[in-house]
Structure formats: structure tokens, C-alpha cells
Design a protein that fits this description.
The complex is a heterodimer of chains A (222) and B (601). Chain A is mainly α and 222 residues long. Chain A has 6 helices and no strands. Chain A is elongated and about 65 Å long. In chain B, helix 1 runs antiparallel to helix 2, helix 10 runs antiparallel to helix 11 and helix 12 packs parallel to helix 13. The relative contact order of chain B is 0.05. The chains are: A mainly alpha (222), B alpha+beta (601). Chains A and B meet through helix 1 and helix 4 of A and helix 8 and helix 9 of B.
Chain lengths: 222, 601
């Protein structure tokens, strides 16, 4: 979907929102696909990821040409820079969703083993964070953006728990090692998706307040 | 420019008219009074001159100038008039108030010249001799036809002027009083004219604010009364039209919101115009928050975004398929058509969304069923065909092998038969319950349970298993005993198959507090993983295909149980966890529900 060039901030926002929708949907699909062990869906996700990469490049070109134009306010410049960063984060989320899908292709044909509850919860939180961070961007809602940053601690904790769960189960049933390591990979990918969602939320704060809040402690459950 | 109020326009102009008219009146009156008074004075002077003329003539002819001077002074003293006698060449002969010798030549005085020309003349001017405004009147003095000179009488205008001033003052005062009264009246009249107009304006303002129940009072003048009537009519019609529109709007809203299909409309800039309840549920948006925002902001579904874009670009109606990914994936058919205004100009696009996820699921079930049936039938037939061909190829000659092969063929044929039997009974139950042709009557539940347990006793004994039964002897239910028995046999047999040797199966029937009858079959066997539970009652759904086949299952047992329960207007439930056994419950509607059903039909 290489649509026409964005000529102003409004169009740029719309194009980025299209990418948001595509990435969010693909991430959701990747979680559905691994939960249902749906290989056909996984293949489709990997295909859409290539499209995401193309759009990312096209939006980046838009940003560069908009930055080159004159008569820009400070806010507009900040917005374009934030779009550049969010664009990049979205592309990374898309890649990671593609990675989750690739893991699904490695699931055994008739494998029926249950997923650890930690992994399912982590997936749920991650999806929620992606959705919320994009919501925060749409409405430029600073409070919502900050709530995403706090949620990230929770996801990190679950990911660490997954390590323990997999470790214990590896000792108990070494024959299942491949499957267990697949779970661990998925958990790691999802955790990183959550990190990028946090980045997006931080960029939203940057647009709204012009303040860079990266590398800060958000408080939370730790 | 600020508009003048009608009241002031009316009031000020009438005031102006009054002032103008009064001023003109005052000037005219005082002028005519003055001229009448002055005319009287001049005539009086002339008359006095005429009276004195003869006496003056006598003295003049006699030439007694001293006597003339005395007479003049005498007359003057009596009549308060200055008397002057002037010769024809202008020389003053006598004067009542002055010494004639000191006076200059009077031939150029206007009254003298006028009198010499026309026998008499008058003039009013400032007299330097008297230092006053003075009126002069002159008449000629003749002896026969011979002109001797002029006799002049004069009087100062002091008193006349005073009386004129007094008169003018009176007129002015009267005029002021009239002006005051007239001004007051015009104020009242202007008020009276403008007040109903102001009332109309206030009424019209209430109309404009939407208070269409209000009616204007009837003003007394005809024009305004007509206006008020027209405005009241207008308000009434507006009210009717608005209530009509409101009603249409709420009807449309009701239609839109009660639609199962989602309806969502965007303008040419892809901004949300309207969305019905169904669509807002599907897309998780609310009209209040999303109205006027662009589709990219509110609908994070690329499929719909692209579809709307494509529909806006197309003149014709468009159709497409999108998926909405939420906690599950939903499949939606979308129809787009261009919205047009009264001038047939495109103003946006309306998209109708039809969720066909359920339909798709059913379609998948059907497709899977056909594939499964073919597969299930093909397996024994392939086996039979293989062994028959082996026999034809010569194995028939080896009696021992031949008997073994024929045994296999017979078992496979039995299996084929069992599958076909199950399929047939399944379709019989389905058809029967569709057409309400299954015989239903009250029967003893205990009898059904006993005969089902008896049917399974052989298999149970083979695995040294015990079947416990618990049912009140007087428990009755409306049912088809044969079908219900078959359902129970299927459940008990499953329990036996998926349990270890020596375990117990419990069969129990009782009436629940809500009135329905619950028949449970509980085993202590292997149990079932929770992810299989939702699909357990599907046809040919097997948790472990190989194990099921080895145990002689057709994959249809639980599907038959479900259909029998449905034929009884009931349901079937399962509770299970791996290693903890399974509990299947057939729930039949109670007696009370049944009668209620019958009453309804």
C-alpha cells in the first residue's frame, strides 16, 4: 500500500496511523496464531511483515522531505522527529511479531502441550501495551502514555518468571526441550515488543511535552 | 453604523414638526400684530395732522411765525405729539419740542419728500433729536392750489414697542406650553406605536431560541395583528416540522441501532459521520468520542481503512471481506456505497458490515465432516480391499492365513457397519427432532438407567469395573426411552474405555432445585485436557485418533449423545481434567417447563 506522499503533518499522522493499525493487527494475529498453533496464519503474518517494512521506508522518506520544507513550528518539528522514531519502533514490533510467527512454524505437527500461564498473561499484557501506546498517540494522551511505561515492569517480571518455569520444566522433562525453548523465544520476543510499545509511549510524551523521559524509573511494582 | 430605535425616530421627528410649526406661528403672529399696531399709529398721526392743518394754515397765511410756534407747542402739549411745520424748501418754521432756528434743512427727510410728492407720507426711524425710534407722518399745507409747505406730526414708538414686546412674550409662553404638551403627547403616541413592535420582537426572539410553544399576543393595530398572526402560524408550522424531523430521526436511529449488521459512515475526508450500535461493538468505538475523527484515528483495522478509501474512489457500490482481530478473529463482509446529498454530489461513504464468523464456522464444520466421513469409511475399505486382493493372489490356498485374513475382513466390515449405523441413527435423530416426530411420553427414569447399565455390564466385567447406580424409583420424565438408553450406553461405554481396570463408574439421575432432571455419568479415568472440551461433541472429533480406533470407537458416540439430548429439548455438559476422570451430564427440562411449552404451542 504505497499511497501518495504525505504533504503535511495531518497526512503524515494518518499514514503513520495506518502503519499502527497494520502492526497492531499483525501482533494480535501472531499471538492468536501461536495460541491456536495456526501455521497458515503464521505464514500470512510473515508476508504482512514485508509490507510493513516497505511502508516504514516510505514514511521515513515522507518525514525527511517534510523536514526539508521551510515554515515549520517547533511543535511540528518535534512531531516529525517523534514520527520518525515511532515509525522505527513500529517496524521493529512488526519484525518481532514475524519472529513469533516463525516460531509457530517450528511447532510440532501434533503437539498438544499446554502453554505456561505466564506466557499467556505476558502475551495479553503485551497486546494491551501495544494498543494503549497507539491509543495514547492518537489522542496525544500523556496519562495513558505513562500507564504504558508502568505496565512494562510487569511484563519484564513475567519474562523473568518464564525463564524459571522453562528451566524447571527442562530439568523435569528434557525430551520436551525443543518445545520449551520455543516458548522461551516467544516470551522474549513478546517482552521486546512490550519494550518498543514503551518507546512509543515515551515518544508520545516527547510530542506533548518536549521532554525526553527515557531511562527514567517509572515506579511501579518493582 | 448603529441603528436608531424606531421610538426615537418617531418621537424626534414629531417633536421637530411641533417645534417648526410653533416657531413659524409665533413669528407670523408677532409680525402681523406689529404691523397692525404700527398702521394704527401712522393713521392716527395722519389724522391729527389733518385736524391741525387749517389752524396752521391760518397762522401761516397771516405770517405770524411766533404765534405758529406757540400754537404748535400748545397742540403738542395737549396731544403728546411733536408737531413740526416745514416750508416747501425744507426750512423749519416751527417745532413744538425744539427751537426752529437750530434745526437743519428737512427737505431730505423721507416722509417730507413722500408728502410733497403724494400729499402725505409716513416714515419710522431713529430720531437723533429725540434719541428714540420715532414714527413721522406728514401732510401738505396748501392755500387754494398753492403749496405752502408740510405739517409733520411725530410720536416716539416707545410705548408701542413695549406693548409689542409684551404681546410677543405672551405668544412665546403660550407656544412653549403648547410645545410641552404636544411633546408629551407625541412621546406617549410613539410609545404606543413601538411597544407592540417590541413585544413582537421579544416573541420572535423566543421562537428563535426554540420556544415554539409560545404564542404572540394580538396587538391592537391591524397591520401588527396580521404580522403576529403570520408569525404564530410560522411558529406552529416550524414546530410541526421539527417534531416530524425529530420523529423521523429517532425512527432512523431505532432502525439503525436495532440492525444486526454494522453500519458506519464516513465523509469525503474519511472522517466519521455516524456509526450504529452493532458497528461500534464490532470496532470498539463510541460515537461520542469518535465523531469527526479520521478513520485512521478511530478504526485500527487496515482492511476497513483500505476498503473505505477504495469505496470513496469508486462510483459504484463496492464489496469486500475484512477480518477484525480482537481476542478472536472475526470475519466480516463489507458493502460500501457512496452517500450523496440532494444535489447528487458525493458527500461520503456508508459501509454495511456483516459478521459471518458463525456462518464460516458452520461451513468449516460441514467441510470437515465430509472429509472425516470419507476418511473414516475409506480406512476399513482399504483394509478389506487389501486382504481380499491378497486372498485372490493365492493366500486363499493357505487355509490358516486365509482364515486369519477373513477374520480381519469381517472385523473391518463390522467397523464399517458400526460407522454407518451411527451415521444413520445420527441423521434419524436429527431429522426426527427437526420435524418433532420422535415419540415422547412420560416413563420411568430408573428403568432406562437399569437397562443401560445391563447393556454395558459385559464390557465392565471384562475390565473388572463396577457400575454404581442411584435413582429414585418414582422419578418420571417425558422422553423417548430407547434414545435416552442409547445415549447412556454411549456415555457408560466411553467411561469404561477410558478408565483403568478395577475403577468405578457412577450413574445417577435426580431432579435439580430448578426443576430440570440431571443424569450424570462419572468415571475415575484418564480425563480430558481443557482445550479439547469445547469441540468434544463434534462429529469425528477425537483426542487421540489411534487410541480411539484401537478401542473400536467410531468418533460419533458423543455426537449422538448431544443430538439425543437436543431431541429432548435438553443439553449435555462435561467437566473434566487430566487424571481426574470425567463427568458427563445430560440435562432434560423438567415437568413444569414441559407443560409450559405445551401451553405455548
Amino acid at each position: 500500500m504505497l499511497e501518495k506522499r504525505a504533504e503535511n503533518i495531518e497526512q503524515l499522522k494518518r499514514r503513520l496511523l495506518q502503519l499502527c493499525a497494520l502492526v497492531e493487527e499483525n501482533t494480535r494475529r501472531s499471538v492468536l496464531a501461536f495460541r491456536a498453533r495456526d501455521r497458515a496464519a503464521a505464514a500470512e503474518i510473515i508476508k504482512v511483515d514485508r509490507e510493513i517494512n516497505d511502508i516504514e521506508i516510505s514514511i521515513e522518506e515522507d518525514c525527511v522531505s517534510l523536514l526539508g520544507s521551510t515554515h515549520r513550528s517547533v511543535e511540528d518539528t518535534r512531531f516529525i522527529i517523534a514520527v520518525l522514531k515511532i515509525n522505527n519502533d513500529l517496524e521493529r514490533i512488526g519484525d518481532l511479531a514475524g519472529n513469533v510467527a516463525r516460531r509457530v512454524l517450528h511447532f510440532g505437527q501434533n503437539e498438544q502441550a499446554r502453554f505456561p500461564q505466564e506466557l499467556l498473561t505476558l502475551a495479553e499484557y503485551t497486546l494491551e501495551m501495544v494498543t494503549t501506546s497507539i491509543d495514547a498517540f492518537v489522542d496525544l494522551d500523556m496519562d495513558l502514555a505513562r500507564s504504558v511505561c508502568q505496565r512494562d515492569n510487569e511484563v519484564d517480571r513475567l519474562n523473568r518468571q518464564m525463564y524459571k518455569v522453562v528451566q524447571d520444566r527442562l530439568l523435569a522433562e528434557p525430551a520436551q526441550s525443543e518445545k520449551l525453548l520455543n516458548f522461551l523465544s516467544i516470551s522474549r520476543y513478546l517482552e521486546r515488543i512490550a519494550d518498543y510499545a514503551t518507546n512509543i509511549a515515551e515518544d508520545v510524551v516527547f510530542i506533548g511535552e518536549g521532554r525526553i523521559i527515557r531511562h527514567q524509573d517509572y515506579g511501579g511494582t518493582e | 453604523m448603529r441603528k436608531k430605535k424606531l421610538f426615537w425616530q418617531l418621537y424626534i421627528s414629531s417633536l421637530l414638526v411641533i417645534v417648526l410649526a410653533l416657531t413659524a406661528f409665533i413669528f407670523l403672529t408677532s409680525y402681523s400684530f406689529k404691523s397692525i399696531l404700527l398702521d394704527q399709529v401712522s393713521e392716527d398721526l395722519l389724522a391729527r395732522a389733518a385736524i391741525m392743518r387749517n389752524e396752521v394754515l391760518q397762522l401761516w397765511i397771516a405770517g405770524d411765525m411766533r404765534k405758529l410756534q406757540e400754537t404748535c407747542a400748545d397742540i403738542s402739549a395737549r396731544t403728546d405729539t411733536r408737531v413740526t411745520v416745514i416750508a416747501k424748501d425744507g426750512l423749519v418754521l416751527a417745532d413744538s419740542w425744539h427751537d426752529p432756528l437750530t434745526m437743519d434743512n428737512h427737505s431730505h427727510r423721507p416722509e417730507i419728500r413722500e408728502a410733497l410728492r403724494k400729499k402725505n407720507g409716513t416714515s419710522t426711524r431713529f430720531s437723533r433729536t429725540l434719541q428714540r425710534n420715532t414714527m413721522y407722518a406728514a401732510v401738505t399745507v396748501r392755500e387754494g392750489d398753492r403749496l405752502l409747505g408740510v405739517l409733520r406730526t411725530a410720536v416716539p414708538l416707545q410705548t408701542v414697542e413695549a406693548s409689542i414686546e409684551g404681546l410677543q412674550l405672551q405668544v412665546l409662553m403660550g407656544g412653549l406650553v403648547i410645545a410641552l404638551v404636544a411633546g408629551l403627547m407625541s412621546l406617549l403616541i410613539s410609545r404606543r406605536i413601538t411597544r407592540p413592535i417590541e413585544a413582537l420582537t421579544r416573541g420572535a426572539q423566543r421562537f428563535a431560541k426554540g420556544d415554539l410553544e409560545f404564542r404572540l399576543p394580538d396587538p391592537r393595530s391591524e397591520e401588527l395583528s396580521n404580522l403576529a398572526e403570520v408569525m404564530n402560524d410560522m411558529a406552529k408550522q416550524l414546530q410541526e416540522r421539527i417534531s416530524q424531523i425529530t420523529q423521523q430521526h429517532s425512527e432512523q436511529d431505532a432502525v439503525l441501532s436495532s440492525m444486526v449488521e454494522g453500519v458506519i459512515a464516513f465523509d469525503m475526508e474519511e472522517r466519521l459521520i455516524n456509526v450504529n450500535r452493532s458497528a461500534s461493538r464490532m470496532l470498539r468505538i463510541s460515537l461520542e468520542r469518535a465523531k469527526g475523527k479520521s478513520i485512521q484515528e478511530i478504526v485500527r483495522n487496515v482492511g476497513l481503512q483500505r476498503f473505505v478509501e477504495q469505496s470513496l474512489a469508486s462510483e459504484l457500490a463496492t464489496e469486500g471481506y475484512i477480518t477484525i482481530v480482537d481476542d478472536t478473529e472475526r470475519f466480516v463482509q463489507v458493502h460500501g456505497s457512496i452517500l450523496r446529498d440532494a444535489q447528487r454530489q458525493p458527500i461520503g461513504v456508508v459501509v454495511v458490515m456483516n459478521d459471518y464468523t458463525e456462518l464460516r464456522k458452520l461451513e468449516n464444520v460441514r467441510r470437515e465432516f465430509v472429509a472425516n466421513v470419507s476418511h473414516e469409511l475409506k480406512t476399513p475399505i482399504t483394509s478389506i480391499k487389501g486382504f481380499v486382493e491378497t486372498l485372490i493372489d493365492g493366500a486363499v490356498n493357505d487355509r490358516e492365513d486365509a482364515m486369519r485374513f477373513l477374520g480381519i475382513i469381517s472385523r473391518q466390515a463390522d467397523r464399517l457397519n458400526a460407522i454407518i449405523e451411527d451415521l444413520l441413527s445420527l441423521s434419524r435423530i436429527e431429522q426426527g427432532s427437526d420435524q418433532e416426530q420422535i415419540d415422547m411420553f412420560p416413563a420411568s427414569m430408573r428403568d432406562v438407567l437399569v437397562s443401560a447399565v445391563q447393556s454395558c455390564q459385559v464390557e465392565a466385567d471384562a475390565k473388572r469395573m463396577r457400575i454404581d447406580m442411584d435413582c429414585a424409583p418414582d422419578l418420571q420424565a417425558v422422553m423417548n426411552p430407547q434414545l435416552l438408553e442409547q445415549a447412556l450406553i454411549n456415555l457408560i461405554n466411553n467411561g469404561i474405555k477410558y478408565s483403568d481396570e478395577g475403577q468405578t463408574i457412577q450413574v445417577r439421575a435426580s431432579v435439580a432445585p430448578a426443576g430440570e432432571i440431571r443424569i450424570t455419568v462419572k468415571d475415575e479415568g484418564y480425563g480430558i485436557e481443557s482445550e479439547h472440551l469445547p469441540r468434544l461433541f463434534e462429529r469425528f472429533y477425537r483426542i487421540d485418533k489411534a487410541r480411539s480406533r484401537k478401542l473400536g470407537g467410531t468418533g460419533l458416540g458423543l455426537a449422538i449423545v448431544k443430538h439425543i439430548a437436543q431431541a429432548h429439548h435438553g443439553t449435555v455438559e462435561v467437566q473434566s481434567a487430566p487424571g481426574e476422570g470425567s463427568e458427563f451430564t445430560v440435562i432434560l427440562p423438567g415437568e413444569s417447563e414441559k407443560t409450559a411449552d405445551e401451553q405455548a404451542t
